[in-house]
Amino acid sequence: MAAFARTRVGRLALLLAAGLVLVVGLAAAGSLTGCARSAPTADSTDRPSQAVSASPYGAVAQVTAKVFAQNVHPRAADTWGEIRAREFVYQTFQQYGHSPLLQEFIATSGGRRVHSANIIAVKEGKSAERLIIGVHYDALGGDGYTDNAAGIGLLIETAARLKSRETPYTLVFVAFGAEERGQLGSRYFVSAMSAAERRVTLGMIDLDGIAGGDESYVFSRLGSATWLRDDVLAAAQDMEIPLQETPARRDAPAGTATMISDDVAFAEAGVPTAAVVASNWEVGRRDGSTQTAEHGRIWHTPNDTVGFVEKNYPGRVRRQLSDLSRLLEVILTSELEKRP
User: Fold this and answer.
1) Which of 9, 25, 108, 276 has a CA between 20 and 30 Å from the CA of residue 219?
2) CA distance 243 to 248
3) Which domain holds residue 121?
4) What is the pLDDT, as a whole number, of residue 19?
5) Please, what is the Cα angle at 84 between 273 and 1, to 5 degrees?
């Protein structure tokens, strides 16, 4: 029975991933409707990625996010839903020409054993020095459109867009499992890094809740703002992308935040981090006042759905994903101003 269920899950994920390849051409044309074209053959594995590179920034990310959110939910950690989500991401990486690795793990959360896995796609660069770009694929609330299907969409688009580009650093794209159970996937990933891997890891960019909220921010979560966060912010300002510093709470230094996500495990290990967020939440300011979103918090609520977000904030997710897709391309193809 279990084997039969896994086979059905695998087939569903493969069909959904193949469907994404079909809509790449539609996204490239700036449309989400039209006639599908044939899936690539074995001798044309670069063609889907080339199609992404020719598409408008953010188009494939949004299509992916919508398909993922609406067809693969609920996806709580250590459930069949998370397995379906994992296979969706794995197969989609493959569809765009990557050879992903599955890093399975068993951890404990709330006194219970949790079985999950990370999906890892590596893009070799001119240097062995590497940047990690991470998102989580499990979800709580609604269909997890902003938290974190949008992050999955952007990760997939960026990995596809840069597959054939020359990059100064090796890029490690990671979809973490079981983030909602205490960042179990990212903590396992960090614990499994060798000493050599830590030495060549320049930094980690976290994409969690990156679209749908009123404003977009970039920050570090522990201590002071890192050089990587400063580089991302400077690039955004140069490109006139509306990415802001966090209106910090009085108990957090400027440029930082105390909310927890997958970048925390890296920060605790001494890896410079930059977290990008656009989720709606109530933000405490240094003067004691608050900034509250129009509809309140979206993430972890029943409102975190494609239908609610697109109805109440039409065009917002697409615009934010477009901005971040452009920004990531610049960051990941440029020599960064590395500082100790």
Assistant:
1) 108
2) 15
3) 2-332
4) 53
5) 140
- Which tokens hold the place of 16? 């959904």
Which residues, 6 or more positions from 57, have their beta carbon under 8 angstroms from its beta carbon? 321, 322, 323, 325, 326, 329
**Residue 205 within any structural domain of the chain:** yes
Q: Taking the C-alpha atoms of 61, 51, 323 and 317 in order, what is their torsion angle to the nearest 10 degrees?
A: -30
Number of domains within the chain: 1
Q: Which amino acid is at 62?
A: Q
pLDDT band of residue 31 (cuts 50, 70, 90) is: very low
Element containing residue 205 per DSSP (H, E): strand 201-207
Strand partners, 131: 171, 203
Q: Which two tokens stand for residue 247?
A: 């209106």
Q: What is the pTM of this model?
A: 0.86
Can you tell me the distance from the alpha carbon of 28 to that of 131, in angstroms, rounded to the nearest whole number?
28
CA dist 262 and 186 (Å) reads 5
Separation of alpha carbons 214 and 283, rounded Å: 12
Residue 105 is encoded by which pair of tokens? 């793990």
What are the tens digits of pLDDT across the range 67-101?
Answer: 999 999 999 999 999 999 999 999 999 999 999 99
